[in-house]
From TrEMBL:
This is HTH tetR-type domain-containing protein. Coiled coil: none annotated. InterPro entries: Homeodomain-like_sf, HTH-type_TetR-like_transc_reg, HTH_TetR. Residues 4-64 form the HTH tetR-type domain. Keywords: DNA-binding. It comes from the Bacteria. Pfam families: TetR_N. Residues 98-141 are annotated as: Disordered. The keyword DNA-binding applies. Residues 98-108 have a biased composition (Basic and acidic residues). Residues 109-118 have a biased composition (Basic residues). Residues 27-46 bind DNA.
Length: 141
């Protein structure tokens, strides 16, 4: 496996580990173990934990933007917000499914979502049809 392929594997593993434990609750050892490499090799690919985290965040942002672009392609402008919201909801549901398949403790955490747990809730489709535009600014004091 090339260094670039390993780097890709590290980013995918980091997304899963950071989703499970957050930044402070995730060790580079856990990421390395998930990928099947040593910590020293991990640090040959990335200068540190923050760089791994930022690569994972960038990947997630790219996926969200790609989802929005695909959802709004060929859609009337007045319908774009709704279709992007529904596509985002599907993305979250798909990611939630992957996380639950990967780790039983994540599945238990997602199950508590409706009972005061800290699971991620998808956007309410009924709230997606509001008015477009920026929020009004508060006057400066």
């Amino acid at each position: 496996m090339s260094a670039e392929e390993r780097r890709e594997s590290v980013v995918r593993a980091a997304i899963a580990e950071f989703a499970r434990g957050g930044y402070h609750g995730t060790s580079t050892e856990a990421i390395a173990r998930r990928v099947g490499v040593s910590q020293p090799y991990l640090f040959r690919l990335f200068p540190g934990k923050q760089a791994i985290f930022l690569a994972a965040v960038e990947r997630c942002q790219q996926e969200i933007l790609r989802t929005f672009r695909e959802a709004s392609e060929g859609v009337a402008p007045e319908d774009a917000k709704r279709t992007m919201g529904l596509a985002y909801e599907d993305l979250i549901a798909r990611d939630r499914g992957h996380a639950a398949d990967a780790a039983p403790d994540v599945r238990r955490g997602l199950g508590r979502r409706g009972r005061g747990g800290r699971g991620v809730r998808p956007p309410d489709p009924g709230r997606l049809g509001g008015t477009a535009g920026p929020r009004p600014r508060r006057p400066r004091r």
